[in-house]
Amino acid sequence: MNELYRSFQPILTEAGLKRFGLILEYSPVCKVLRGIVHSYLQISTTKPTPYPVIPDGTQAIYIAPHGSKIGGAQSRARDIQILQPGNYFGIRFYPGVLRYFFDINLFEITDQFVDEKFLPCCGFGELHNNIYQYHSFHERARVCEQWLLQ
Fold first, then answer.
1. Which of 28, 45, 100, 135 has the most CB atoms less than 10 A away?
2. SS3 44
3. How big is the chain by its Cα radius of gyration, in Å?
4. In 2-69, which residue ranges form alpha helices assigned H by DSSP?
C-alpha cells in the first residue's frame, strides 16, 4: 500500500538541511511497522531556526527534550519554531495510520499540533523523558519502536 506513497518535506533534502543549518539522522522502521510508520529521524541544530512543514498527508510525533507534540495532517505550510539549539526527534507516520495506535479521530487534529493532554495514552506523556535518557540516535529510535509495539 505505502510503497507507492512518497512523503516529501523539502527541509529534509540536502538543500533544505543546508539552508536551515540542520544535520539529519534517519532510520527506517522494523519489519512489523513497515507501511505504518514511515521513519524515525532526528535533526540537530546549533541555533534557533524555523522548521517548515509542508502538507504531504503524513502525521508525525515531534519530540523535544521538554515534551512531545502530535502533528495532524496539514493543509497548508507552516513553521515549527525551534527555539533552542539541540537534537529534536521525530516519528513520521503514513497518512491515516495514527488511528491504529491511538483512539482518536484524525480529523480533530488536522492543521494542529497537540500535546499529551490531547492524547492520554500509555506512556505518551513520558516518551520525551524516556527518549532523552539516551544520547545516540539509534538508541532513541529503539525506545520509540518499543513504545509503538506495546
1. 45
2. strand
3. 14
4. 14-20
* Cα separations in angstroms, 145 against 104, 108, 132, 137, 142: 20, 25, 14, 12, 5
Q: Are the C-beta atoms of residues 55 and 76 closer than 8 Å to each other?
A: yes
Per the CB < 8 A criterion, the answer to whether 42 and 142 are in contact is no
The total domain count for the chain is 1
Phi, psi values for residue 90, rounded to 5°: -150, 155
- Inter-residue contact 82 to 69 (CB < 8 Å): no
81/149 Cα distance (integer angstroms): 30
Instruction: Give pTM, 2 decimals.
Output: 0.90
**pLDDT per position in the chain (150 positions), as tens?**
456 667 778 889 999 999 999 999 999 999 999 999 999 999 999 999 999 999 988 899 999 999 999 998 899 999 999 999 999 999 999 998 888 887 778 888 899 998 878 876 778 889 999 999 999 999 999 999 999 998
What would the grid cell of residue 99 be?
488511528
User: Domain containing 82: what range?
Assistant: 2-149
* Polymer length of the chain: 150
CB 51 within 8 A of CB 84: no
